[in-house]
Every structure is written in C-alpha cells, then in structure tokens.
C-alpha cells in the first residue's frame, strides 16, 4: 500500500512541494467528511451571497473555500492563494515558494441532489519577491504549473494528481485517513465515441462547434462515421474523471452570451489544472484554436473555452475550427 507522500518522494518532489500538496489534502479530507454528513450537518442549500463570478454561492462553496484557505495559510511554503470564491488573491506567508489556485467545490449545483462534486487545485512557483496578494504573481501560463490535481467526491473519494511525471489515482482509505495509490500512469484512449457538452446551449456556440456536434448526432451516416453516446454530469471533475477512465471528449465552448465570449469555465481554477492532468495522461486540451496551457493570463478570474479528452477526437474538433 503506497501513500501519496511516498509516490511524491519517489517522483522527486521537493520537501516544500510535498508539504503544500499534503496541506491541500488535509483540507480535501475535511471537505469529504463534511460532504458525507450533508443534511445532518445543516450545510446544504445556498447562502445569500454572490461570488465574483456572479454565481449564488452554495453554503458548501463557502465552507470548502474557508477550509482550504485556512489550512494553506498555515503552510510556510505557500506565498498566496487564488480561489474561484475569493474576489482577490490572498496573502499567506511572504517567504513561501508556491502559489496555489483552486476551485474549492466544483459542480456545486450537484450538492443539493447528492451527486458527484470535486475540488480542483493547481500549484505554481512564485517568481521573484512580493506579497502573495499581488495578483501579478499568479498571471503565469499553465505550462508553469509544478503540480495539479483534483479530488472527486463520489461513492469513494479519489485523488488524481500530477507533478509532471504522469497521472496517478489514489483512493481515500477512510479507516487510516490516507489517500492510497490505486492506479498508476493513467493513459486516456486516443479514440472515443462519447462526448460531453451542455446541449441546451447549442444555439449560442460558434459554427465550428455547431457543425461538430451536429455531425456527432448524425452517427455512422454522418461525416464522422461513428455512432456517439452522450453524457453530462454538470460537474467538470466527474466528467474529466470519466474521460481518464474510459476516454471521451468534454466541451464547454465559446458562448455568445458571455461578456468575454469565453464560455463558463475559469482558466486558473479549471482550465489549466485539468489541461495539465489530461496532457500528462496522453490526452489533449485546447480552446479549439490554441492549447489552453499556452494562454498568458491577464486576470485571475478569466474564462476560457475548453475542449479536452481523447487526443484524436480533440484534434478533430481543432480541424473544424481551422476550417470553419
Ligand atoms: P462550479 O460549480 O465550480 O461553479 O463549476 C461548475 C462548472 C463545471 O463543473 C461544469 O462542467 C459546468 O459548470 C456545468 O455547467 P452547466 O450548469 O451550464 O451545465
Ligand atoms: Mn461556482
Ligand atoms: Mn468549477
Ligand atoms: Mn466551484
């Protein structure tokens, strides 16, 4: 039985990086515990507040954010944090080497119906000096990530983690309170016949995405020549996990309703960490026109169109964008 920290040591992660990851995981175990209590702890439902994304916050969005913020501020290796649920970046410890960005609770519309949710995190090195509440420190491309991961809170809690040496799965053993290795060097199948997209937004997409999905729906008689299946959990963590396990393509594309026309998902908390994981697991990740991890961020809460998953299928979507 191998614990996360043993794998991190084996893969040559520094003491400082291991400390940051282990602190995040303490927070995730606490979130897993609270989620399992649900109604018993009176933590379902919404607050009366809106986050900076313009979303009404669920009680558990706020609780999960507070759990992670509190634990990360205690780690001397953390310079600062940025979160989907925080308006601004938050300073932790001035001598810390690392910056942590996170989506404390992903798929939070699923909480009240007792379906899968997750936590997504990304770790960057702070370049140079300066307090961790300086937003400029965080504006690094996804290629600079030193680690990324998510915890899927489903029937079991599963940690998926990369430090740039492939992707491993760890399952939370609640008896010993540790994530233990359950699958190594995960590789997403190159081809797929399963897509995931919120079809109700179809009329707001660009033409290349409209064409691709309509060709998927035409099945073996259409130009793609395959009969497709569709899934939509409305929780990116669950969606990406399914793709890591059995292949598939996930899309939250450009959408004409958004002010920045970039779709719904956030680059720093969702796009970049998931792209790092997917690329480390033999997959591909793009906006349709460029690799997500090549984007130079200009704002911590910026949004990004996301197309990721099985390599050949993602490249098919990229061809629709080149031609369209
Ligand atoms: P969050 O709960 O962190 O705000 O993220 C929700 C995201 C993502 O998990 C999911 O893919 C997508 O929103 C679902 O959006 P729709 O409700 O538009 O389907
Ligand atoms: Mn949200
Ligand atoms: Mn999210
Ligand atoms: Mn969230």
TrEMBL record:
Describe the location of the Fructose-1-6-bisphosphatase class I N-terminal domain by residue ranges: 9-184
The record's listing under SUPFAM superfamilies reads: Carbohydrate phosphatase
Q: Which keywords appear in this protein's UniProt record, sorted alphabetically? A: Carbohydrate metabolism, Cytoplasm, Hydrolase, Magnesium, Metal-binding
> What GO MF terms are annotated?
fructose 1,6-bisphosphate 1-phosphatase activity; magnesium ion binding
What cofactor does this one take? Mg(2+)
**Coiled-coil region:** none
Question: Which EC number(s) does UniProt give?
Answer: 3.1.3.11
Name its cellular compartments: Cytoplasm
Reactions this protein catalyses: beta-D-fructose 1,6-bisphosphate + H2O = beta-D-fructose 6-phosphate + phosphate
Residues the entry annotates as binding substrate: 106-109, 198, 264
Alphabetical GO biological process terms: fructose 1,6-bisphosphate metabolic process; fructose 6-phosphate metabolic process; fructose metabolic process; gluconeogenesis; sucrose biosynthetic process
Q: Which residues bind Mg(2+) 2?
A: 103, 106, 270
Tree of life domain? Bacteria
Under Pfam families, the record lists: FBPase (PF00316), FBPase_C (PF18913)
Per the entry, the cofactor note is:
Binds 2 magnesium ions per subunit.
Pathway connected to this protein: Carbohydrate biosynthesis
Quaternary arrangement and interactors, per the entry? Answer: Homotetramer.
Under the heading PANTHER family, the entry gives:
FRUCTOSE-1,6-BISPHOSPHATASE-RELATED, SEDOHEPTULOSE-1,7-BISPHOSPHATASE, CHLOROPLASTIC
Of which family is this protein a member? Answer: Belongs to the FBPase class 1 family.
Q: Indicate what this protein is called per its UniProt record.
A: Fructose-1,6-bisphosphatase class 1
Tell me the organism's taxonomic lineage: Bacteria, Pseudomonadati, Pseudomonadota, Gammaproteobacteria, Thiotrichales
């Amino acid at each position: 039985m191998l614990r996360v920290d043993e794998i991190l040591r084996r893969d040559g992660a520094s003491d400082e990086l291991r400390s940051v990851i282990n602190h995040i995981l303490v927070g995730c175990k606490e979130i897993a515990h609270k989620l399992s209590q649900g109604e018993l702890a009176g933590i379902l439902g919404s607050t009366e507040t809106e986050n900076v994304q313009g979303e009404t916050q669920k009680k558990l969005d706020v609780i999960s954010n507070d759990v992670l913020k509190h634990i990360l501020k205690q780690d001397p290796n953390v310079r600062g944090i940025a979160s989907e649920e925080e308006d601004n970046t938050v300073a932790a410890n001035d001598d810390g080497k690392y910056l942590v960005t996170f989506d404390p609770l992903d798929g939070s519309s699923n909480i009240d119906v007792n379906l899968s949710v997750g936590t997504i995190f990304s770790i960057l090195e702070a370049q140079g000096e300066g307090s961790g509440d300086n937003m400029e420190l965080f504006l690094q491309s996804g290629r600079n990530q030193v680690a990324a991961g998510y915890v899927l809170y489903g029937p079991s809690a599963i940690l998926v983690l990369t430090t740039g040496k492939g992707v491993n799965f760890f399952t939370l053993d609640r008896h010993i309170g540790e994530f233990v290795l359950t699958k190594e060097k995960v590789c997403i199948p190159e081809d797929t016949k399963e897509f995931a997209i919120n079809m109700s937004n179809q009329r707001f997409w660009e033409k290349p995405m409209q064409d691709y999905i309509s060709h998927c729906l035409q099945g073996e008689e259409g130009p793609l020549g395959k009969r497709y299946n569709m899934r939509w959990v409305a929780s990116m963590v669950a969606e990406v996990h399914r793709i890591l396990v059995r292949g598939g393509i996930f899309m939250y594309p450009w959408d004409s309703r958004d002010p920045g026309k970039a779709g719904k998902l956030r680059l720093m908390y969702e796009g970049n960490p998931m792209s790092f994981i997917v690329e480390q697991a033999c997959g591909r990740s793009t906006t349709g026109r460029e690799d997500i991890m090549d984007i130079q961020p200009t704002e911590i809460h910026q949004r990004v169109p996301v197309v990721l998953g099985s390599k050949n299928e993602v490249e098919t979507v990229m061809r629709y964008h080149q031609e369209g």
